[in-house]
Amino acid sequence: MSTTAPGSATGTVIGAPLDRIDGPQKVTGTAPYAYEHHVDNPLYLYPLHSDIARGRVARIDAGEAEALPGVIAVISHHNAPTLADTRDRELAILQSDEISFRGQYIGAVVAETFEVARHAANLVSISYDEDRHDATFTPDRDDLYTPEQLNAGFPTDTEEGDVDRAFSSAAVTMDETYTTPVEHNNPMEPHTSVAVWEAGDLTLYESTQGTHSVRRLVAKLFGLDRERVRVVTLHVGGGFGSKGLPHANTVLAVIAAQVVEGRPIKFALTRQQMFSCVGYRTPTVQRIRLGADENGRLTATSHDVVEQTAKIKEFAEQTAYATRTMYATETRRTTHRLAALDVSVPSWMRAPGEAPGMYALESAMDEMAIKCNLDPIEFRIRNEPELDAETGLPYSSRNLVACLREGAERFGWEGRDPTLRARQEGRWLVGTGVASGIYPVFRLPGSKVRISYRGDGRYAMEIGAVDIGTGAWTALTQIAADALGVGVESINLSIGDTDLPSASVAGGSSGITVWGSAIFEAARAFRERHGDDPAAGDTAEAGTPDNPDTENYSMHAFAAYFAEARVNEDTGEVRVPRMTGVFAVGNVINPKMARSQFIGGMTMGLSMALHEESLVDPRFGHVVNHDFAEYHIPTNADVGEMDVTWVDEDDPHVNPMGTKGIGEIGICGSPAAIANAVYHATGIRVRDLPITPDKLIH
Amino acid sequence: MRAHDVEGAVAALAEAPNAEFLAGGTNLVDLMKLGVETPDVLVDVRRLTSDRVEDLEDGGLRVGAAVPNSVLAADRKVRTRYPALSQALLAGASGQLRNLATTGGNLLQRTRCVYFYDTTTPCNKREPGSGCSAIEGHNKNHAILGSSEHCVATHPSDMAVAMAALDAFVNVLGPDGDRRIPIEDLHRLPGDEPQRDTILEHCELITSVDLPPLRFLSNSKYRKVRERASYAFALVSVAAALDVEDGVVRDIRIALGGVAHKPWRATKAEETLRGEPASEENFRAAAEIELEDAEPLRDNAFKVPLARNVMVRTLLELSEER
Question: Which of A459, A517, A614, B6 is the most exposed place for a label (fewest CB within 10 A)?
Answer without folding.
Answer: B6
